Amino acid sequence: MSANEQADVVVVGLGPGGEYVAGTLADAGLDVVGVEAELVGGECPYWACVPSKMMIRAGNLLAEAGRVSALAGEAVVTPDWGRVARRIRGEATDDWNDQVAADRLTAKGGRLVRGTGRLAGPRRVTVGDRTWEAQRGVVLATGTRPRIPPVPGLEVTPFWTNRDAMAAKELPASMLVLGGGAIGVELAQVYARFTCAVTVIEGQDRLLSQEEPEAGDLAAEVLRADGVTVLTGARVRQVSHDGTEFTIRLEGDGEPLRAERLLVATGRHADLAALAVDTVGLDPTAGAVHTDGQMRAGEGLWAVGDITGQGAFTHVSMYQAQIAVQDILGQPGPDADYRALPRVTFTDPEIGAVGLTEQQARERGLRVRTSVLTIASSTRGWIHGPGNEGFIKLVEDADRGVLIGATSAGPAGGEVLYGLNVAVHAEVPVHRLQHMIYTYPTFHRTVEAALGALR
To answer: Which intervals hold domain Pyridine nucleotide-disulphide oxidoreductase dimerisation (predicted)?
Structure first.
């Protein structure tokens, strides 16, 4: 008999997708080992999706109070950051939630192993000096970690990542944000609304560079309205820290930038070498684990979540996890389909998008029609008044007569996105969408006007 320990399935990484896979397979009667080096539940509930949206909610309430008070000619008192932070995170919340998640797995019959898992060949995983042999296979769900750019001086400074920004108990007087993607702009707005002097530095020509140009322009507009300094097309030459403040020198002859804190939000990456993927024939220098439509990365090997390179979103991880579970259980189901991949940047206004941007569609050689209408042009936008910035942009494949992309930015941009997501995913003909009944007066009624404006 082998000296190695046995299991049906070993799940390496218990973020949202991995936790779902481990729990569901254990509930189905399989002998499952879940391996996690940090907190069960992963980045989302502790340092990303959940606490960030609570912070954003607090900032949005403060901004809305300011708009109402401005109409009445009254001042708004900014609440103490520390009290807000404590209410958001609570005391010892992380440890409590981690234990609840761990207990949930064991209650279903799964086994939790604390530590860093590494592949040791096909269907084999090591954690410390222990090795498991997985009879059915291994699921990789280790997520990603912050990408730290190779800027001279940066590595030796006490910079923040999103985790530090989420856990901060005191509000800095000033902060530099390196990176103008979703994480950077969300946190920049929150901190600015609590009176922190914020500067965002983005190397691309606009914020949210992966989205429509109109989305980046809107993000810059609303950040500046909150007092944020936005620098685009800016390249960082050097970073230093004197024990009190950070200094950033940009390429060119401009004045250096200084602030109490520096948040690095320049993307995330998967560390495949740390997983020893070479032991199963995969490239440890690759940016992601490539899978087929059933999330198979090899014989007896599946991968779900950020590590697959299909977008660093919890909803993608959960979507992939469901497909992997069905495949492992031998239940036939459709392949993963990313044509209608939705995403939302939770600024105020929210900026939601699904499918292809206009540029991506044109790069694929498609003949497209587009339209852009502002939320303020709708009755609901007019009613809403202050804070009604936003727009609907549609991208149609003109030859097939279906939407292949859309952006919904506005006070409820992420919620309005749902209908557009359905339209793109189901390939509902545009002429049918044009003859729907759209509720009056709603933000989503702007979609009807945008459909009529396609050119």
So the answer is: 342-448
Q: What percent of the chain has pLDDT over 90?
A: 87
CA distances from 424 to 63, 142, 429, 444 (A): 33, 30, 9, 15
β-strands 402-410, 350-355 pairing: antiparallel
Neighbours of 223 (CB within 10 A): 23
d(CA 138, CA 120): 11
For the chain, the distance separating the N- and C-terminal CA atoms, rounded to the nearest angstrom, is 70
Amino acid at 73: G
Please state the three-class secondary structure of 216-243 as a single string.
Answer: HHHHHHHHHHCCCEEEECCCEEEEEECC
Q: Which residues contact 190 (CB under 8 A, 6 or more apart)?
A: 52, 55, 56, 58, 59
Rg of the chain taking only CA atoms, in angstroms? 24
Question: Residue 266, SS3?
Answer: coil
Confidence of residue 424 (pLDDT cuts 50, 70, 90): very high
For residue 429, the 8-state DSSP code is B
Decide if pLDDT at 107 tops 80. yes
Please provide the CATH number assigned to the domain covering 342-452: 3.30.390.30
d(CA 15, CA 52): 17
Q: Which CATH superfamily is domain 5-45+90-144+270-328 in?
A: FAD/NAD(P)-binding domain (3.50.50.60)
pTM of the model: 0.94
pLDDT at 90: 60
